[in-house]
TrEMBL record, chain A:
Name of protein: Small ribosomal subunit protein mS29
InterPro entries cross-referenced by the UniProt entry: Ribosomal_mS29 (IPR019368), Ribosomal_mS29_met (IPR008092)
Molecular-function annotations in GO: structural constituent of ribosome
The keyword Oxidoreductase belongs to this UniProt entry's keyword annotation: no
Keyword Ribonucleoprotein attached: yes
Extent of the signal sequence: none
Gene name, Swiss-Prot/TrEMBL: RvY_15740-1
Primary location class: mitochondrion
From TrEMBL, chain B:
GO cellular-component term (any): mitochondrial small ribosomal subunit
Entry's Gene Ontology BP terms: translation
GO molecular function annotations of the record: RNA binding; structural constituent of ribosome
Protein name: Ribosomal protein S9
The gene coding this protein: RvY_05826-1
Source organism per UniProt: Ramazzottius varieornatus
From TrEMBL, chain C:
Pfam families: MRP-S28 (PF10213)
Gene for this chain: RvY_09374-1
GO biological process annotation, one example: mitochondrial translation
CC per GO annotation: mitochondrial small ribosomal subunit
Domain Small ribosomal subunit protein mS35 mitochondrial conserved: 167-253
Organism: Ramazzottius varieornatus
Protein name: Small ribosomal subunit protein mS35 mitochondrial conserved domain-containing protein
GO MF terms held by the record: structural constituent of ribosome
Top-level lineage group: Eukaryota
PANTHER family: MITOCHONDRIAL 28S RIBOSOMAL PROTEIN S28 (PTHR13490), SMALL RIBOSOMAL SUBUNIT PROTEIN MS35 (PTHR13490:SF0)
UniProtKB/TrEMBL annotation, chain D:
Record-given protein name: Small ribosomal subunit protein uS2m
InterPro entries: Ribosomal_uS2, Ribosomal_uS2_bac/mit/plastid, Ribosomal_uS2_flav_dom_sf
GO biological process assignments: translation
Broad class of the protein's primary localization: mitochondrion
HAMAP family (alphabetical): Ribosomal_uS2_B
Pfam families, alphabetized: Ribosomal_S2
Gene3D superfamilies: Glucose-6-phosphate isomerase like protein, domain 1
Cellular compartments annotated: Mitochondrion
Record flagged with keyword Mitochondrion: yes
Amino acid sequence: MRSSVSWLRLRNTLTGLTKIHVSTSSRRWIFSSGCAYQQAQPNSQNPVFFDHRPAQLSVTPLVDTSVPAHLPVVNAKRTTITRPREHTLDHEGFYYCVPPEQSDVIYGMSPNSGAFDMRHRTLQNLRFQWELAKESAIMIRKPALEVMEYVKNTNFAHPVVRYVIYGREGSGRTCTLTHLLHFFKDEGFILLHVPKISIWSRRYKEVQESKFKPGRIDLPLDSVEWLQHFLLQNGEHLRQPNTKLVTHKTYVWSKREETPAGSPLSDIIDVGIKRARYANDCIGVLVEELKRIVSESDHRVAVVMDVANALFTPTTIPQVDKTTVPADRLSLFLHFRKTLKNDWKNGVVVTTIDRKGIVDLPLRFDGGGNQFPRYLLREEGWAVMDPFIPVLVNDYSDKELTNCIDYNIETRWLQHVNAGTQKGRDELKVVSQNNPETLRKLMSRL
Amino acid sequence: MSELAKGVRWTTSHLRLLLDQATRYAGPSRTSWKGYRGVSSVSGSPRMSSNSPSDANAPRKLSGAAVSEFVKNAHLNEADPKVKVNRAMRSYLERAQAHNMFMKQQQQDFEICRRHLANMMGEDVETFSQEDIDDSIRYLLPSNLFSRRSRPLMKPPQEVFPQEKEAQFGIDGRPFRSLFYTGLPNYYQVLYDAANWTRQLDDLEDERVRKGKVPPEKQIDLTGTAWKSKDEMSKMLLEKISDHDYRRFVLTMERLLRHPYAYRVEEFIKKYRQVLIAETKDLAPPVPKKDDSGKSYAESHATKKSCHAWVTLKQGTGKYDINGQDLLFFPRVQDRTQVMFPLQFLNKLYDFDVIARAEFGGNSSKAQAIREGISRCLTAFVTSEELELMRQAGLLTHDKRVKERKKYAYTGARSKPQWRKR
Amino acid sequence: MALAARLSLFSGTATSTTRQTDWIRLFASVPSNLRDEAITEATEFRTLSLNPARKERRKFEERSNRTPDLLPPRSQKMHVDQDWTNVWPTATSFKPSVVPLPVRMGFAYKGANPDKYGNAELMKIPNFLHLTPAAIKKHCAALKKFCTPWPEEIADDAACDRYFPAQVITSTYCHSGTSIRNSKYRIVSYKVPLSRLNLDSHARDKFLRLLGDRYDRHTDQITIITDRCPTRKQNYEYAKYLLTALFHESKKTEPWEHEKAVADFERFKWEGSPSEAAATNTVKEILTSSTASNEPTSEDISPEEVKQFEEVQEYQRAVSDMLNAGEHQDSVERYKDAVKTMLRLGRFS
Amino acid sequence: MLLRCVPQCISGRVHHLLRSTYRPLHYGTACSAAEAFPQMRRSVTEDLMRQEQTVPSAEPVIAPVSSSPEDMLKHPDYFNVRKLFTTKDLFQAGVHLGHMEGTLNDRMRQFIFGKRFNQLVIDLDQTAEYLRDALNVLSHIVYRGGIVLFVCRHRQNGYLVEQMAIEAGEYSHTRYWRGGILTNSTAVFQSVTRLPDLLVFFSTQNSVLEQHLAVDQAALMNIPTIGIVDTNCNPNLITYPIPGNDDSPATVAFYCYLFKTAVLNAKKKKKEDDAREQRAQ
């Protein structure tokens, strides 16, 4: 009898941070309403925590008047430098905020922006975090700095350089991409950003036979979404009055519809958005035209693609003969494969690879398994991508972990009594094993 | 049919012969029954009471002091033609004699057989001990029966045949115990004693109250003890006690314990208490070894359900290597917490590296097996105080529960198939 | 009345004789001489008791339940210094009357454990009464004359492995059941090191493909386990046959073996691989674009020359290493460095 | 029917001799307690005198120095039990207090003196006679080495009875009566066991409604019984019934005193007689 009691007791650890039954009260504070925190005016009773922040930033920090007394006052390390180009290794582990005017364009986190559904499905966790903290804070980490350094040193007359960001489950590959997206946007690149390829192979919306080439499969609605996303991110380039982004030949969509040569690429996109039937072909045209134009002009294109290895793996789209559509018959995949080749210039290709969401890889909950590029890209991917530069994303270093916990305490995301103590931090460190995603999941319920 | 039963007339000398046999072959008696003492005084202070049941609770065997007392009496009354042996005593003596004759025969047979076995095994008869006999039987008649006492054995007759009960009455057939006819004299004697003490303490209290005295703040120190369990009591009193009887015993004793002067009968109460916490078992901590780089490490093996874990705990910086992965080998938080807990408990999270191999079983089993393995390894590095803390936290207790087997006609161990009345 | 009757049963020898004759008289199947004798002793009336009284019925039952007189067990006549190996020369099941030991088996909740007589448990278990130390000594003495001396050449295990590379493993456990034959008895494992077969690279490759998981690359051992035949001898011969067949089959080269595709290669081959083409093209492109910026190197640089560049060579080594030895952190890092050098990217500090 | 066959035990012999020697008691011929009861002012000597009158064959109170067993049994009061108590003692101990009228067992009607506030009052004159009779039997049995078992199922008085039995060197059973103690003793005690020669019930009831099992079983086994029977009890199966209050601790203590003294006196007497006999030889 005694021993069974002790087994029960062991369910709670010393600090009580990790336990099975989490009372809902700890969550209530966060999810009480869609707009949880009323912004309080700083005064003498409620000093602004981040008073080092420059005043011109409209990002207001979270200051809540009903701060529980037990919570420690912690300030996470931040940098006010908002240009990624200026980030250096000295800032490693620091947070910085993407200015809202840029953030809205790049990440489109507000429900009013186009293709919200796609981003909602792909960048959900990031969106929640940014919405609740009322700021788009990104931690500056080494892999992003590394890629930026390479890009800065790149000779753009050479064929495009491909980067493959790899690392284990939850180590922060997608977050690295968000940082890089900001970097490319800031540098004036045209963004060819695919938030997550694997949703097209598993969670597609509508399927139709291709008109352009029989036997191929189109995903019209998904394509429309992506075009909207592209338009959102690159509106300033496309809508320029004297843009060089023009077609070099006439595209005939149907008997009555055609896009003449010399018309701006935004026309192509408009066709795709308005006529979903042609959206897939529009993407093909867009890729072809962009590759052609940038090789000759001073525009630069950054292809940023999450889970690029899904381009080379089968889909779950059923066919009449009860088989599934292979990757080389999905026209979207074929179009985006073209961007990964190094037969064009004046651009850069940054991709990540992942095990999760790949159709024929067994789902492993333990976060293990082979995560290396050659294995995940497979024969076809290797043939397309080689030679590329693999960039490893490691788990948090101790410095980054501390800063992450500090940030979460500061933003009141982490509210446990023992969260700020050394024992609590140790427990979070060991139980999460410095893995960012695991840490996020742990903290989400504390 | 024995000679006795054929209606042969009993004489005193005959009896003595019988009794001689009875006393000679019965083993040494552990206690002596002093018989019933007749009138005894209960008045006076509680400490003076002479109604001590201490003798009553000792185990009693065939023959022994009762018979020797009887022999003494028989000797005294040898010339007395009026000496009458009660039928009960006569029957008892017959049984005793038959038993002793039988045991004597068995003893002789066993000796011969021991010589036979020594000859078979080619050993020296004189030095062929009981251990040698056991070894030989284990070799000649090997059995893997799970129950060890069901395996073949060859033991001396004293260990094979149960000892018989000693007589509970004297030569005239009068039982020794006043409560004999209740069937549970020892048990009811305890109840009587408790009631006796309670009354005497009540009297004492009355007397003190009359003198205007307040009972002292003394209390019996009963920490770490509890009433003896039903089985313990049964064993102690040599009587089978029912649940109801046991409840009554506890009630009575609790009432006595609540008395303000209960400290005066501490000795009596302590007799029926047992120490609750068993002493720390002789944990054999694994011996720390040194690896090539001079770091000391300890190894252990632990199980949970069908899972086996081999754990190495090495001085280090808090790294985990579980089946080649780090702690995220376990997708669930609880499992990671389980593994971490022993080190966290002793505040040594960053003092050791854990290298574990866990096989079979599920995630939870693996985690708990590794936890147990880490705890065992830790015993090699901790102080005795920390060890005691770990034991109290249950870290050193093996979880011996296993999956309950499925039963036929059921869908699981106990769950019944879905059924609806038609 | 009943008490009186009971007393008379035990009251002496005289009554018991009459009791017996009374009883005999009840039945007509008694031999006539006895019956006559009984009649002479009897009183004038004889009653035919078709439904004998309870008392007499009981007497009958007592008689019929009496155990017959048997000879005492043989073990009681044995001398304590006898030669046991003659009493129990071979393996046989337990006989309580022959074994002079008061063994007991099983347990009882009350009283003594069941003794050896009529104890089926003792017969179920195997016994080694025929293999006492004395019996073993006798056996060894009898076998001694058939033994030969140990060859001097085989001094240690290494020498043994050298002269006898093949290893045959069988098990000879006794089964604790009605038959002592263990079902594992017939299974044969045949082990031999692959290196001792002296195969060339083609034959070795084919041999290994045919073997599948029967080869352990760490110990270089081939293990063939045969259990499909009913006896050990057949299984042993079958294992030898299998090894021989595999050996000869692997030495052959069939026509279809020339149709080997890239996916069938055991190792990565640089020549003609997509990596080679990609690397060559990329480097050439880089050089071409560099010449555009007024550098003297020519456009007509041949792919062969490109392949001789140190960067490309290093790249080749890195790729081959990564793909042959499998990916791990070091090999991927080496590949990264090689690509960086080849693409002329700076080092990230 | 049971009593017809001659028992072999000590108690049986005593019991039969006594039964044949004494004339049956004439219920109601005792002094008219109606006069004595309300006042109860008589002295001990008066009381004694009255008793002598009621038993005209009474011998001198002092017991004979030596006598044969037959003489002993014929002696009306060999152990001086008559002097042990007076009717007044009975009254003071509350022996006369019966139960409510509604609970009256019809067989007890003969012992009822009257009723007060619906509570029955027992006729103490009869009680005294029966009690003396019973004490005499008890003493004779104890003198011959008989086993006396005191039985009481009353929770409150159990301790008293047990204590008394220990002090008197006899046996008691105040607990749950498991079946077969008398009727199947060899199995219950796992050996041949000597049974008690006399059962003394301090209360013949097991609970308010049930009779004690031992009453039936003692009758079955031909063991004589002495029993305090209250107004709600059935005296039929009790060999020597004593009408009286069986509940109050004070009353039970009084009975205890009487029985204990009788037992000890008898034992003492036995010792003296034996010693005298030895000396004579």
